[in-house]
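Complex record, two chains
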Amino acid sequence: MSKLLLLLKVDLIRTFSLDKLKNNKSKLQRVGIIVIAFILAISLLSQVGMYTYMGTKFFMTYGIEKYLLPIVYFLCGFTIFYSTVYRAKSYLFGCDDNIFAMPIKPSVILTSKVMVLTLLSYIVTTIIFVPAFITYGFVLKLSMTYYIYAFLAYLFIPLLPTVLGCIFGYLIGYVTSKVNNKKIFETILTYVTVLLIMYVSFNVQTLAMKFVNNIELVNKLLSNVGFLINSFMAVISEYSFKDLLIYVFVNIISIALFITIFKNSYIKILQNLKVENTKKKYIEKDHKNKSPLATLVAKELKMYFSIPIYVLNTSFGVVLMFFASIATLFYDKEALLKMMEIDITALPVYLLVIAVIAFSVPLSSTSACSISIEGKNFWILKTMPIKTKDIFLSKIILNMIIVLPLMIIDIIIFAISFKLTILQVLTAILFTIILNVACSMFGVIINLKFPRLDFVSYTHVVKQSFSVFLGIFVPLILALALGGLYAALKMSIDTYILIVFALLCAIIVLQYNILKSWGMKRFNELN
Amino acid sequence: MLKITNLTKKYGDKLAVDNISIEVKSGEIFGFVGHNGAGKTTTIKCIAGILNFEEGNIYIDDISIKDEPIKCKQMMAYIPDNPDVYENLTGIGYLNFVSDIYNVEKELRRTLIDKYAKEFEIYENLDNTISSYSHGMKQKLAVISALVHSPKLLVLDEPFVGLDPKAQFKLKEIMQDLCNDGMSIFFSSHVLAVVEKLCTKIAIINKGKIVRMGSIEDIIKEGTLEDVFMATLGDE
């Protein structure tokens, strides 16, 4: 087997944790994972198919349906670009030194890594583009020629966005390596990007209308700047062989050029990115003695803010709610609620605020990966004279520090906007606190049950671990069930709130007992 | 200071440590040697409270680590073979974190950090994040963090790996000074010459069992420690 294939095999096994799937899980668990993955894939594919169906019908009413697949192509490309930027930074430009000590050419290492990134991009393309082009062809009753051309187009979609993502990932890595507070810079940069994406997705209808109204300008832009999208459109709608050749050529040449240009300077680039700012000289400062719990909380906070992906993933709910609350101050509330597809007549505003809290708090669960995030440093906590209870408490307090201050401000803003009474405000604040404690405790429990201490990158543990998935979705399902309870029983709001409070308090007591008995035992078993 | 009685540790069906008993008195430096995978790190991790064990017990100053883990951990310090410390903290941030956990007084911590950081020549780097440190600097930081709370028992797993010759010399000097002051040290190493020179007692472990144990004088009657080691485990 050639070195490239060997590297590719090892990288794929590591990226998809195939060795663990094969060696550590029982047959039943393996089947379970495959079934879950299959269900997830089917649901994703059918959702994309459904959106394409609706989109095609909408565009057909204006006679501009030929623009639908180019839009899907653009969205697909952007998703690949965005996810590659993230992966490239740690995977392509943050790899370990061991591999370079082996007798393998840097160009082979670079090629294998780019191939893995491209393969991951193919997964995205398959999920987004395949159901889209099949649905589109089905709705418009297109011939077999269309399917052949669309399939050929599909084969080359991931190449250019992956290359652009790699270059951009390198640029971000280069800029952040030159900045002093690089973690904060990285977090801000990522937040701006995410907010931009959110703005686009929330305004998709308005943007679609603008697109329809400015179709001539779009045509002009496509022929001048977006020649690749233009070629893609010609391939899909006119079955132009010439454009297919141009499209394939541009995509292949982009990846070939990237590898050719970067292969000679790959090691130099890696070394440049690794240079840390170490010019500071230590000057003795006064330090106040802290209690072990305060020390642990301070450590948790420092860790939290030094991992941009952790900040981004867990502050999403509260930041989202903050922007929503600010929006209620400046925009027409009824229009806002209508935009969010909320029927104002069905629920009192006060309950809506409670519902928004119930959905925002679980989204901000820092504790669901707080044990895993210790990773290779876990021995420090295990060997120190710290009560396990204090370790759990520090993880819960971190979540409260991240969630509560901003949430309380949000509630006050909502109170001003919707003219809530003081009692309603206090109830909402109390609800937030109780829910936050319950969710934080649940996060710790679930992370103790499904820890991932041997992670390679923070992304694996913060975004892709099972405990984070459960830590968010179980409370969300509970919130939905509680909402259903209100709708089903049609009781008074006061009685309903009392029942919810009692239930949450019972959950807290139950979780406290679980943490005190099983949790401590489980923590001591982990290593 | 450290008493291990009939310690047995299994990983599933595999016996990693098989009924071992060791005693380290105050002021003693105990060397723990053996092949890779013989059970050294497992034993050390059991002492440090990282691993639970099935049978036997470990006492630190006559207190069982099973019954009173916090009290035991308060009295000892552990340095792993790979100094993985919080990379996102600064060096001084980590030392203050450890000092706070062990409740080290402000003045004492300042004196000790100052002393050891200067001796190991990383004083000027203390304000940098640990991620910028080299492997050796991280090892030095781990050593300082272990010494900053003046433990009664120091447990070290391969402490000299990654240290430059000067730092190795300094660490050996510090280990001897601390033992003269009554501290006990239990450490594993593959550098037999260092073990022979530094230790008062040693144990050779093979396949989880102690195959040789005694004072260094008794052990090296038959030759150098390397000779004894090869004679004992050479064919394994």
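Note: Chain B touches chain A at residues 45, 48-52, 70-74, 78, 80, 82, 84-86, 88-89, 91-93, 96-98, 100-103, 105-106, 109-110, 114, 123-129, 131-132 (CB under 8 Å).
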